[in-house]
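Quick one: structure for this chain?
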Amino acid sequence: MGLNSSTPLEIAGYTVFPLSLPPLPSFPVSATHYLFLRPHEPKLPSPAAARSLFLVNVPFDSTELHIKNLLSIQIGLPHGRIEEVLFAGSRSTAPKVKDAAAKPSNGKQGKKRKRVYEHRAIDELEGTALPATWDRELRKDGLTAVVVFVDRPSMDAAFKAVRQIRKNDIAPVWGEGSEGQVPPLGSARYINHHKLQYPDREQLLQSANTYMSEFAAREAEQARLQARKRQVPDDEGFITVTKGGRNGPARQESAQESAVKQKEKQKGLEDFYRFQHREKKKEKAAELMRKFEEDKEKVRKMKEKRGALRVSY
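Got it. Here's what it folds into:
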């Protein structure tokens, strides 16, 4: 499809990539959708950023298959050079805490470890949710996406191909090559949604059993952590008071050792603040004056005992 020559090639550093939207039975008129893309430059660099493209204003019905076909076959490049497509706000791109929480601990059972554990449990239990009632996720208007390629040359080739297509005033047809490979929209989407609202009994039972098994495992792990806190003293030598009572007394040697370590940490902090330094100087001056007055009193008493000194010729 040809384009209007007045369409700019770039806007604010983004390459303008027009897409031709095919007519639909409900709207039998073709339209043009404008996609904006550029090499991905996040504020927090990541290893995959150098081989990624950043897309703005992706169509509302975008899927990973749509984007892969658009940036490969539809621009004259081989298929299979895209590793993944990350849509902003998608459930599949939510950050995971499993790896961070699975790191080996150093033996300290602090508040930070507790927060990581709780977040990890919630995050993992989300995988045991009820069956989905929609066969396809739709996007919001103006949504962004990050397309990660297998390597940097593949990303450069795709970006150059898009710019070359723009120079030739060609607008690829959106969704071309993915017909029949994604769930349909329109009335068929809502008919399928109605069916998915009534899943099979065995599927529901399996989902519930999986959820309860995961929940029981998290409860058991939480109980083990609480029992360990009741037996191991913290850095200050205190035992954490938790619900359920103590399974056994903590070793007195461990508590004393922690108390000694805490005292060593506090050494050298007596004169940390200025007012402490001034107060210490005043105390030293008062101590010197007191000793001076005591010495004067001793000299006076010694003179009284020995009497007046007489000189004879």
